[in-house]
Amino acid sequence: MKTLLKISTLLILLYNLSFPQFYADSVLADEVVEFVNIANEKTVNFSLYDRPKIEFTDDELEHLLVLYYKCYSISPVCFNDYMAEEHKKWEKASINVTKGKMKLRSWLRIYALVDELTEQYGREFITIIGTPAILKCKYIRLDYSQYDLDESTKFRVHNFIFVVEDVLKGNKYFRMGDTISVDMIPNIESPAPSFVTGKSYLIPVTTLLGHQDDGFNTIFAYLSDQQSGWVMGKPPKTFPIENERIKNLEFFGIKDTNWTDFKKYFKETYLIFE
User: Fold this and answer.
1) What does the pLDDT profile of the chain (274 residues) look like in tens digits?
2) pTM of the predicted structure, to 2 decimals
3) Given phi > 0 = left and psi -120 to 50 = alpha, else beta, which region is 170?
4) What domains can be seen in the chain, in order of their start residue?
């Protein structure tokens, strides 16, 4: 009887969450190393108070665009880990450096390159290709868990449970039929999105951390069409799908349309580096 109970519990757990999600086949890609090396080289004369425009040829920008896409499509977890190591190098090099001469933090070097790509190709396009996975999901329920940042700092996590119905981007990490948890810690600056049980949505997702901490493996990706990537007081963008018609597509530059046509448009517009 105890054995049957253990098996039943295991089956429930397997049904509830599919893994490994963004940790699948996670290896440090050559594209990540090259992209970071370019960021370090091109921003060598930057400081916190002096961020001149970076000069690229059209061919260099196109190459940079492909690298950026692949940093997130091949291994976003390893990208985060690699940047964590770069940050450690920055901290070590910044010891005893006067404030005015301090170089840009590691992620700010990356953002400087992304700004150049954004100026050339548009914020919406760059935001989408920098989103590791975009999924059609059916909303199941809301669960809760606790995330302990340290012994004295604990957060209540919202775990939004979905079943993946289709994968537009991120088929290395997600499959149709997966049951996944997309997590966030809502607050006034970043409220939770609203879902209806049993309804389908297009959900952009990413990962917050690297291998060093799996507390937030899969989270909502913020799609922003504004200069600031952090829009206070607004929930993450999601796109409802009713009767196989997807709505609120202004961010993608098109009107509401049927799911089949949207898939074709998405592939032709955003998956050009596969």
Assistant:
1) 333 333 333 333 334 455 457 776 667 889 999 999 999 999 877 766 666 778 899 999 999 999 999 999 988 988 988 998 988 888 888 777 766 566 778 898 999 999 999 999 999 999 999 999 999 999 999 999 888 777 788 889 999 999 999 999 999 899 999 999 999 999 888 899 999 999 999 999 998 876 656 567 889 998 877 655 556 778 999 999 999 999 999 999 999 999 999 999 999 999 988 7
2) 0.86
3) left
4) 30-121 (no CATH), 133-270 (2.40.50)
- In angstroms, what CA-CA distances link 165 with 68, 77, 127, 133, 177? 27, 24, 23, 13, 6
Tokens of 271: 């998956």
Beta bridge partners of 44: none
